[in-house]
Amino acid sequence: MRLIGGYNIPLEGKPEHGISVMPESDVLYLPLRSRRFTFDELSVKEGQRVNGGDILAKDTDNYGVPLLAPRAGRVRLKARDGHIVLEEVALLEERADMAEEKMEHIEQEMGAAGINRYKLLTLGAWQFFYDAYSGRLPDPLGTPQAIIVSTVSLEPFVVRGDVQLHKRLLNFTRGLEQLQSLLEYQPIYLVMPDIKSNLANLVRDQIRGYAWVKMLEIPLTYPYDDFGILARRLGLKRNKGPVWAVRTEGVLAADRALTMTKPCTVRIISIGGTGVQGPTHIKAVPGYPLEAIRYKYVLEPAARLINGGALTGEAVRDDTLGLDAECRGLTVIPELQEREFLGFARPGWDRSCYVPCYLSSLRKPFRERFTSGLRGEARPCVSCGYCDEVCPAGIMPSLIHKYLYRDLTEEADQARVDLCVECGLCSYVCPSKIDLRKQLIDAKDLIAKEKEEMRQEQLRQEEARKQEEARRQSEEKSE
Amino acid sequence: MKWLLKIVEAVRPTFEEGGKLRTFKPIFEALEHFLFSPSTRTLGAPHVRDPMDLKRFMSMAIISVVPCAFAALYFFGWRFLAMVVVSYAAGLTVEAAFAIVRKEGINEGFFVTGILFPLIMPPNLPLWMVGLGVAFGVLIGKELFGGTGRNVFNPALVGRCFLALAYPKAMSQSYIEPSGDLLGCLLFKWLPSGSGVDAVTVATPLSAAKGGVMASTSHMLLGSISGSAGETSAILIILGGVFLLFTRVANWRTVVSILGSFIILTAALIASGATKVGIDGLCGPVVWHLFAGGLLFGAFFMATDPVTSPTTNPGKWIYGMIIGTVTVLIRNFTGYVEGVTFAILLGNIIAPILDEAIIEVRIRRLRSEG
Question: Rounded distance, CA B111 to CA B43, Å?
Fold first, then answer.
């Protein structure tokens, strides 16, 4: 598949290259929920003292992926709803290594390959892995047909690969080697913005002789870094097994877990967007109080704090107090306050638009000061075709919208709504302000659920048939 | 403009649920949103939105026909302004009535229809016919299909088609001689002849050509010929049309394929001698035919209506070719002198089928994806 569609939204507040380290906090608020995970099984007791790297809770639905204590401290379970609070936080020595005996036990049980996967999972590196097609956590014991490693992050704004790689190139290449040790012969695709750049050459030099790393260059257009798009671009078929996908932070975490057997606790995230004073990257641990970040970077009185980018991130709820374990960036967008007089008729020198309908199209590309305004009234679809044009997955959002409007779920399924990568560009460009992204996601979920139910039903029937047969056979025997 | 917003806020309760004038809520909302951009915020991802909205979208279409409207004013007098006013008044009444019944907002699409319609009318058409035509077009062509976005036919063309069939005589006799003055009708002349009611009926270039009288191509380029109010000046139509293509509100594929197929077919007919034009050579007659009648206006402003044209790009190419070809066929081989209206309406009928076929192919291709 060729790369099609895509668009870089001109949001102001691009994070700078530097990283500023947040001061240590006395209290950490670790949310029990994040985008993919719900840590439902607690492993600690109220008031218990933990060390950095200890497992606080596990997500039983996701292969027991752990929530690690980023620092040493005392656990409070009921202090805040939906959080594990870590008090008396201290930067004591991290848990040095796993107990030798335990290791041996696991090695006996799972073999040498298994031990690496066990380490990845328990040391918090596995949470950085994605299934390229579904975006979910892949099975740590599965065998992928390939691993996609992406150093590119194009959504405004999440942490950028080049910032994470700064001074960590050696760790990165070592991490790539560690990933390779998980595989037999399957390839690793390394996605870079420019495979002739200095950085790419350095990587190539360091991994020389490793024919299993294949470099792939993609243009810096959102959302070409999406793993689903990349997997399709690489021609990896869904029915040939899972494709693991991992970003820069995941490779670094794999290196840390497998080379040094240390937990991955500190994270580099971006803080950007229109509402941020001095957008940059920050280094902080999960659970870091959002209030402290807000206090330092957000000056707008009414601003929306978004966990993730402006296009796919989720607004941080008021009752969420700390950074979650999956956060890759915080985007701050001021809430719409003022209503413009004759807004639609203005020349629009300061408006950066997908189509050249404002005077600003005579200007050089620039970043606009976006607010959370919808910027128009909800209207019926006029088939302008912008969403079809911008869609990177090659499906037709306007068509699917029309099917869904008439409750034609079957047709929406035929039109491959499941290929939607949820990038949000269709909603972004729609002049009728239809929330296509939400409609497509809802349809996707509904169809997946229906298919699952059908599968279950079939299984049940199969089971009943077998039982019936067994009963008959036993009856015949008894006769 | 805070004071105005305060007034809007003050009268809002009257139109809300329980207010005295709640029936007219759509009208209040239309007015409010015309004056002030909405205060709605995004609810979830994506948290920011493109500045483009349907108002701007439609404004672009209106701006692009402003040169033609000025040409109409210049050549055919201030009566044209009255036609615009009547068109908006009649059309908006229908639109508002439906909005009230449906309890939906008034859609901006009508504002384009309202200006396009008088531009494709003969300049001396009785005003009541203008009103009737646009009301018919909006009612039958749009609202009965479910309103903006769901109509199959271009409402302005439905209105024109209705008038052409219901009042053929009035339609054909309302073409008048354009003003020959340097200032045209700009100095508040009601009609170019100045005499008002008894303006002389003249033939449009296409009907005159059937009688062997050829209008000069340069006059057709500038617009000083007889014809529908806005369709005479080729240069201004191209100017506005190119602007519309630049803004990407109209799709260039439709325009290119209509004009391309028209030019190729006309050239072929002239070269083979199947049709005779009173101009020598090949290039001259083709350009003459291109500028004559409503072809350019239809190609740039009517056929490109996104709602009634196909949504897929290949569909747009075929759609354009059908319109271009049918126009040539009607012009040269039927009793009608002008065929653009019928050609585009025919294209509108075929558009959904074209889409269906192309979507079928695309879906088949998508199905093979892993």
Answer: 29
- Nearest chain B residue (CA) to A338: B39
Complex ipTM:
0.91
* The residue to which tokens 């413009």 are assigned: A340
Q: Is A433 on the interface with B (CB under 8 A)?
A: yes
Question: Do B48 and A377 make contact, defined as CB atoms within 8 angstroms?
Answer: no
Three-state DSSP state, A231: helix
Interface probe, candidates A349, A363, A383, chain B, greatest B C-beta count within 10 A: A383
Nearest to A358 by CA among A10, A80, A47, A43: A10
Query: Which residues, 6+ apart, have CB-to-CB distance to A232 below 8 Å?
Result: A1, A393, A419, B369, B370
Instruction: Write out the two tokens for A314.
Output: 């989720």
CB < 8 Å to A416, chain B:
363, 366-367, 369
Please report whether residue B232 resides in a domain: no
Taking the Cβ of residue B364 and every Cβ of chain A, the question of whether any pair is shorter than 8 Å is answered with: no
Chain A residues with CB under 8 Å of B247 CB are: 355-357
For B30, the token pair is: 């239309």
The answer to whether residues B358 and B294 belong to one domain is yes
The verdict on residue B131 lying in a domain is yes
Both B179 and B264 in one domain: the answer is no
Q: Is the pTM of this model over 0.95?
A: no
Local structure of A269: helix, strand or coil = strand
CB contact under 8 A, A433 and B36: no
Q: For the segment A271-321, what is each residue's pLDDT rounded down to a tens digit?
A: 999 999 899 999 999 999 999 999 999 988 889 999 999 999 999 998 999
Query: Given CB atoms, is B50 within the 8 Å cutoff of chain A?
Result: yes
Euclidean distance between CA atoms A377 and A383, whole angstroms: 16
Hey, what CATH topology would domain A122-264 get? Answer: Rossmann fold (3.40.50)
State the amino acid at position A50 in one-letter form: V
What is the longest distance spanned by two Cα atoms in chain B? 74
Residue spans of the domains in chain A: they are 122-264, 374-479
Share of chain A above pLDDT 90, in %: 65
Q: Are residues B296 and B185 in the same domain?
A: no
Residue B271's domain comprises 250-365
Of the candidates A153, A222, A160, A218, which has an alpha carbon nearest to the alpha carbon of residue A189?
Answer: A218
Interface check for B32 against chain A (CB to CB < 8 A): the answer is no
Half-sphere exposure of B98 (CA within 13 A, CB side): 19
Say whether both B67 and B150 belong to one domain: yes
Residue A223 preceded by cis peptide, ω within 30: yes
Structural domains in chain B (count): 2
Give residue A162's identity as a one-letter amino acid code.
D
Residues B204 and B259 placed together within one structural domain of the fold: no
Does pLDDT of B195 surpass 60? no
Give chain A's residues under pLDDT 50. none
Strand order in the sheet with A49-50: A28-31, A83-90, A72-76, A49-50
CB contacts of B57 in chain A (<8 Å) are 357, 382, 384, 431
